[in-house]
């Protein structure tokens, strides 16, 4: 199996972003950064504290409408990512065409998400049932097996998220339905899990560092000019903007990695 080249994807992404920045950044800012920033501003302090340090026995009450706002934000971000993938995978396409294509393919992406959630829920329910049955025999055994099953479920979800990292490019670049999109995204990442994991970890670490630094510096300057609340808002905006820049490069790189995997798939099929 041919090796997936992160370096080649980076070189192609840099060249593409430099050439098409005027198309890419407005899409990401409008459909990714802005919804995320609005949701962040809507999040109550107690929920923000819980997200930073989640505890199963101390889940704060969710304000009415916040769950709907979170769901809408996720859908908008997915729509924005599909639009950016359309721009990255189809050179010459206009933003309007990319938006229409993304809107047409959103039901498939939502369907894949629903199917994955149902599969995960099935695994969790099965694990809970095993734990309940074992608890009738021994509380100690049930606690031990429950911890093992919980860890196994978490590892399974993590592994599946890596194997499906090319799902969005598959959805936007084909006319496949829900199950076929999932099958193909899974197949395209076969043999590339560790490379993709390293790539995603580096991107997440870089995004966290630069966004935090931008939020801190701009927040301090904004605090001196507009007071604590103004500084906090300025820092949040700066952090979101910097994160958006990183996300543009990450998504374009994923588009190039998808094209590499697609080419390898074609070569293997021809043999």
Detailed description of the structure:
It contains 8 helices and no strands. By secondary structure, the protein is mostly helical. It has one domain (9-270). Helix 1 packs antiparallel against helix 3. The radius of gyration is 21 Å and the shape is globular.
Task: Please give the number of β-strands.
Answer: 0
Q: Which structural class fits the helix and strand makeup?
A: mainly alpha
Number of domains: 1
Catalogue the unreliable spans: none
Organism: Sphingobium olei
Keywords: Membrane, Transmembrane, Transmembrane helix
Transmembrane segments: 21-39, 66-87, 108-137, 143-172, 193-221, 233-252
Domain DUF7847: 4-260
Summarize the structure.
With 271 residues, this protein is mainly alpha-helical. Helices cover 86% and strands 0% of the residues.
